[in-house]
Design goal:
With 94 residues, the chain is of the alpha+beta class. The protein contains three helices and four strands, in the order ββαββαα. The longest helix is centred in the middle third of the chain and has 9 residues, at 33-41.
């Protein structure tokens, strides 16, 4: 999955002015936006992961990625004869 991820941006945890509603805000990385939008148009999903590499409190809390849909990723990794056999419930081998 790591190879299929496109880093779209970073997010910081915040709390509303009244102090009772948490939310995330952030920035988009412009250099990856076209590739990320293309993947989203093909059914990709958003994935938010905690940023475990935060040497400074000013660093983002989370990283925003675009990843392929699980069914698309599995289909890309499965050989074509096996996919066809799965659809028709037949063995791909004689």
């Amino acid at each position: 999955m790591n190879d299929d991820r496109i880093k779209l941006g970073v997010l910081w945890k915040n709390v509303s002015q009244k102090g009772n509603k948490p939310y995330l805000s952030g920035r988009v990385q412009e250099e990856n936006i076209d590739e990320a939008v293309g993947l989203l148009k093909r059914g990709g999903r958003l994935l938010i992961l905690s940023n475990t590499k935060r040497p400074d409190k000013k660093d983002p809390d989370c990283v925003l990625y675009v990843v392929p849909d699980r069914s698309q990723a599995e289909a890309a990794q499965t050989p074509a004869p096996a996919r066809a056999a799965r659809r028709s419930n037949e063995s791909p081998f004689p």
